[in-house]
Amino acid sequence: MSERIAITGLGIISAIGDNVHQNLASLRAKRSGIGQIKYLETIHKGILPIAEVKHSDDELLILLGVSENTGYTRTALLGMIAAKEAFADSGAKKGDGIRTAMISATTVGGMGSTEKFYLDYINPEKTGDFVKYIDSHDCGDSAEKIADNLGIKDFITSINTACSSSANALMLGARLIKHGIVDRVVAGGVDGLTKFTINGFNTLMILDKEYCKPFDKNRTGLTLGEGSGFVVLESLEVAQKAGKKIYCELSGYANTCDAYHQTASSPEGTGAFLSMSSALALSGLEIEDIDYVNVHGTATQINDLSEGNAMIKFFGNKVPKFSSTKGYTGHTLAAAGGIEAVFSALTIYNNTIFPNLNFKDKMDEFDLIPVTDLIENAGVKNVLSNSFGFGGNNTSLIFSKV
Amino acid sequence: MKAFIRGIGQISPQQTFAGDFLENVTAYNTNMLFCIDPVYKEFIHPLQLRRMSRTLRMGVTAAKICLLDAAIEMPDAVITGTGFGCVEDTEKFLLAMLNNNEQQLTPTAFMQSTHNTISGQVAIMLKCKEYNSTYVNRGFSFETALLDSLMLIAEDNAHKVLVGGFDENSFNLHTTTDRLGHWKKEKTNSLQLLESKTPGTISGEGATFFMLTDKEDENNYALLKGLSTLYKPENENEVEQHVNDFLKRNNLSASDIDLVVYGLNGDARTDEVYYHLRDKLFNENAGAYFKHLCGDYYTSSAFALWFSANAIKRQVVPQSVRLGKAPSGALKNILIVNHYRDINYSFMLVSQC
Amino acid sequence: MDALIAKLKTQIIEQLNLEGVSPEDISPDDSLFGEGLGLDSIDALELIVLLEKNYGLKIENPAEGKKIFYTIRSIAEYITANGKA
User: Which terminus of chain B has a smaller tally of CB atoms within 10 A, N or C?
Assistant: First the structure.
């Protein structure tokens, strides 16, 4: 059980790029992916900004190299693209005989297709091409399509703990390896943007009409995004022996629950404090060892207050450098933990801290100021990444330089 | 990895919440099964109840019954598995959005449409700040929840885990999935499901929670001794091989199994694999089936585990579930074999404590 | 005003699905949130939609709602002052 877990592959598609290389370039250039709605059909077009992946579904099919859409939803396509990149990046080959798990996470699954055709679905008189999407509605569809595409058979599952989902996918992946159930895990998450999500968050009145401003005094809500982030996890010892490229180690993780409210975090950040403390305990690091925090930082009133308070409670008056990357990618819901795991690995591998966009004034409640400019040669050895979700789910991951 | 089953709560299309063990079973003639409701007000405060959709009521109540049954107030983790999640809330928000052109929508159905609503609500109800997760992968949803529970216990990170599987049926869901040929075209008496020999099955639902623990106790139902999954096997021989390996890993042979619980659902296209296993491996063993009682749904294996734990504790296999040979002698080991649409296969081993 | 208060009571009971509560159970001056009827922040969002749907009143900032939704009477006064009820 004391086995250490390495990250040996990264894959991502988001509003700031179709792969790791493009995402890294945008992060360095402070280039946000947020803009006016282009691809999603909704009455909020022109009013609410979102962070879309800059491709139509047909273009995503081409990007993936699939000739015909036999029922691929936007969620499945985004997941397949990111997972494929991570799989290849780790040097994995289809059918190479290594026991492999696919753990994906999604909140909406195939809702993007369902909402287009639902009134036809429920009317038995209607027939047409739309029938091919019916079986793609549930959350397991994308994980199975990704697994089939990569030839993964040994273990497959999907997680939905709302916005902490894919952080939990990494955590489960590490545990599966430690228990000897599999030897390699492709873990992450994906969510395509849907009308369902944008309208849902709109009823909660937590969407910013401008670009989201994490940890800013005048923040008025989050900006929704879409995308997918996957990593490949393997035993550190095995990866080192094989001479593989190792981005970093997943040294700590913890999942706790705020048990406060269905959609809101507790103002004092009880669950967030617990998840950070437990992740640190597992990593065996000291609190001073954490050099940087990739915060959840959604830019809602309550999240940033709650998370800030939890960080102060946890770190005392020595809160390390921190930033939210949601100003680049928007809040990608189930994909956020996976995307931010990729960013955290890049932070360590490139020794670079990516800034928090759109920050101007610090909040009244505390003196926390995020990193607002790119820091190179940042001396980052250990990164803490937070992901929190509806239902009070809090997950913290710690990534360490090997 | 293994754990004792200390307590169970189940709401299903049978009278399973009140302690009855399938002595009086309810027959359905609709191809679409819904749960028999307990009086929810006895379990949930009216102020909370007013917002809760059917599946939330079912899930939270099943969890409460389980906690009472186990005489445990606070678990160390809450884990659920569900294929479709909160269907009624999802449909409600979706239809309102489509019918009102995205205007004048309210938040309640949306915020409760997420699949982890029940695990979150149970945690809020108990003020349980510990590990909390929800798995949503079709016929592996409940299985992963169980595996996660077993791992937490093996890691010494939890000693009592509240783990549940739930899925909710709806008219629209049935209509929609009917287009994929999931359900029988002819009206079928649920109790004669296996006699139909036609394509399709009947849809169902249920909410089942278990309290798993590593502590021995005279009130434990049974031991969950092994769990395994298999994804898209090539053919029946691969399934047979998998079962053989699974038994071997648990130091058992086919003759040690006192009862095999098959996930037979009357679908002439996909039941063959169960009969193959019976002929090749379990010809001499007593058999049982259960989907004629609860219908088919992603997390129906939770119903099978409820059944098996009760059968071991009570040492009874009710007439209503027997398939072929009647069991003789003590029930020490029960093997559950289940698959969802020939894609997600799962195997569980339930033994006497 | 009394007619509006009576109408609001029925609408609120329906919108918030207050099972087992009848209009007579709510006094127009009972506080709706916290100790009184026990409503919460999600109910406040539901009430915002109720005002928009039935009275054509749009509240952009949820914080504004807190003052308006203090009691049934304060809601009625807000509608009378701003709406076309």
Answer: C
For B18-48, what is each residue's pLDDT tens digit? 878 999 999 999 999 999 999 999 999 888 8
**In CATH, which of 3.10.620.30, 3.40.50.1970, 3.40.47.10, 3.40.50.300 is domain A253-400?**
3.40.47.10
Question: Which residues of B fall within a CB distance of 8 Å from C35?
Answer: none
The per-residue pLDDT for range A131-189, each reduced to its tens digit, is 999 999 999 999 999 999 999 999 999 999 999 999 999 999 999 999 999 999 999 99
Counting Cα atoms < 13 Å in the Cβ hemisphere of A359 gives: 25
Which of A203, A204, A205 would best serve as a mutation to test chain C binding (most C beta carbons within 10 A)? Answer: A205
What's the pLDDT score for residue A59?
Answer: 97
Interface of C with B in 21-40 (CB under 8 A): 38
Distance from C-alpha of A395 to C-alpha of B270, rounded to nearest angstrom: 40
CA distances from A387 to A114, A288, A296, A306, B325 (A): 27, 21, 5, 13, 53
Q: Which long-range contacts (CB under 8 A, 24 or more apart) does C19-24 make?
A: C19/B46, C19/B49, C19/B50, C20/B46
**From A202, which residue of chain C is nearest by alpha-carbon distance?**
C45
Q: Break chain B down into helix, strand, coil percent, rounded to 5.
A: 35, 20, 40
pTM for the model? 0.97
Write down the pLDDT at residue C40.
86
Confidence band, pLDDT 50/70/90 cuts, at residue A1 = low
Active site residues of A: 163, 296, 331
Q: Which chains touch C (3 or more CB pairs under 8 A)?
A: A, B
CB contact under 8 A, C42 and A205: no
Q: Which fold has domain A5-241?
A: Peroxisomal Thiolase; Chain A, domain 1 (3.40.47)
pLDDT at A372: 98
Quote the domain boundaries for residue C44: 2-17+30-82
Least Cα separation, residue C33 to chain A (angstroms): 16
Question: Nearest-CA distance from A123 to chain C in Å?
Answer: 28
Percent of chain A at pLDDT above 90? 96
ipTM computed for the complex: 0.98
Q: Does A258 touch chain B (CB under 8 A)?
A: yes
Contacting residues for B40 by C-beta, under 8 A, at least 6 apart: B49, B52, B57, B61
What distance in Å separates residue C45's CA from the closest CA in chain A? 7
Q: A16: helix, coil or strand?
A: coil
Q: Do domains A5-241 and A253-400 have the same CATH topology?
A: yes
Interior/surface letters A72-109, b for 16+ CB within 10 angstroms, e for the rest? bbbbbbbbbbbbbbbbebbbbeeeeeebbbbbbbbbbb
Residue type, C43: D
Which residue positions in chain C have pLDDT lower than 50? 85
DSSP 3-state assignment of C8? helix
